[in-house]
Design a protein that fits this description.
It is built from 4 helices and 5 strands, in the order αααβββαββ. The chain is of the alpha+beta class. Helix 3 packs across helix 4. The protein is elongated, with a radius of gyration of 39 Å. The C terminus is likely disordered.
Length: 233
Amino acid sequence: MENHRSTAVIALTAILALAFVAGAYFLLYDPAFAERKQLVEQAEAIEKTNVAAQKELDRLAQDAKRLDEMKEEVAQNRAKFPTGPDISTFTKYLQDLVEASGAKFVGIDHQPAVALTLAQALPPGPGGQAAPTVPQPPEGLYQYSFSIELKGDLAQTQAFVTALQADNARMFLITSISFRVAEPVDPGSDSKGSNSSSTGKDTSSYKIEGFTFALVPKDEVPPSSTVGSKDDK
């Protein structure tokens, strides 16, 4: 009996010792394990940040290779959307385009600036297709209404419109083109009041209406334009 009792005491003592060791392990080493886990998580977060930073560096390196191209794009955008109306310069530019087309410049009317604050809604497409969503205009975008009148034939007017819509030119959105057909001209007539050009061709009067734009810096107000004059010579 005593042997059995001694064995039971030894077994119980061993179990208590193991329990003590296990408790000591969790008390002493578990905080270190939690700390190591936290360090691993921090290292993984740093690695993700490094990967994102490397991707950004690669992107910047690619942008640096096309820096000259990007500068040219910025210059073109500034030409399309200048920071002010510069009405006199733009009017002269339009007059030069008319004369380069071979037509006769009659005159230009323009109205004061109007701020664009809301996106324009487009009509539905063919077959009831949903119209695309127009993005909200940037802050400081203004539009100027212009009406250009000229005298010439159809080919000359087309040449003017094509030059007006050139990619490297200031943005001009044409909204309407109207014309008045010239009266027939007697080939033998030299009347100064006839609608004939210097080449003897019949000419018509064309009116091109539309908008040009200016992207005015924040806290600046664009100067108002005045109604332009006409040259009916």
